[in-house]
Write a structure and sequence with these properties.
Blueprint (H helix, E strand, L loop, with lengths): L2 H23 L7 H8 L3 H8 L2 H24 L5 H18 L2 H10 L1 H28 L9 H13 L1 H11 L2 H14 L6
Length: 197
């Protein structure tokens, strides 16, 4: 990468970072190119030159976020953690991603952008699900997951947790101790309400 390319990359990254910061606190529909321009300290023309439109910029920010999250997920799953740590990571993953993209914002972006929705669905099917299935199969092979429980059942149970994450997070916040509440949810995932077998 030559000097010009490095400068262009740095400017693009600054614009995307500023957009991400605005998305954390503002409705995407209310964010204007002028807001992003001011926050990134670049001209509006520069933003249009790099991204073409606000919608394309927001899409690229979200795609970048998803790609990074998937890379981090894959790295964690391949880093020698125990099965329990891996499953807990899957269940609690949204706790971390929630800071950057609250789920209401994610849903809004996906509803309003078919191209983005297709991209996310593809990543989920081609990367996240196969890796999760591999982890579950390893758990079955090692005897850590009962033979009585199918891979589909474990996937469904994980999906139940993740589909209710907004409610779980709200309950966790009301409990006064988010970490303890979510750790309890992971414990229940593995051992039910009666404790360890």
């Amino acid at each position: 990468m030559n000097g010009f390319e490095k400068r262009a990359h740095a400017i693009k990254e600054k614009i995307m970072k500023s957009t991400m910061e605005l998305l954390r606190t503002s409705d995407p529909k209310r964010i204007r190119i002028s807001d992003i321009s001011k926050k990134a300290n670049v001209s509006q023309v520069t933003i249009y030159n790099y991204f073409g439109s606000k919608e394309a910029l927001v899409r690229e920010v979200f795609v970048n976020f998803v790609d990074r999250a998937i890379q981090e997920f894959e790295a964690y799953m391949n880093a020698g953690h125990t099965l329990k740590e891996k499953i807990a990571h899957i269940i609690l993953l949204e706790k971390e991603s929630y800071k950057d993209f609250p789920s209401a914002l994610m849903k809004e972006l996906l509803i309003n952008d078919d191209e983005l929705a297709r991209y996310i669905e593809l990543q989920y099917k081609e990367k996240t699900i196969p890796l999760t299935v591999r982890i579950i199969q390893e758990g079955k092979d090692s005897g850590e997951i009962s033979e009585e429980v199918s891979i589909e059942t474990v996937l469904s149970f994980i999906q139940l947790y993740m589909n209710q994450y907004d409610k779980l997070l709200e309950m966790a916040q009301q409990s006064g101790d988010i970490e303890k509440f979510l750790e309890g949810m992971v414990h229940m995932f593995f051992y039910g309400i009666c404790g360890k077998p």
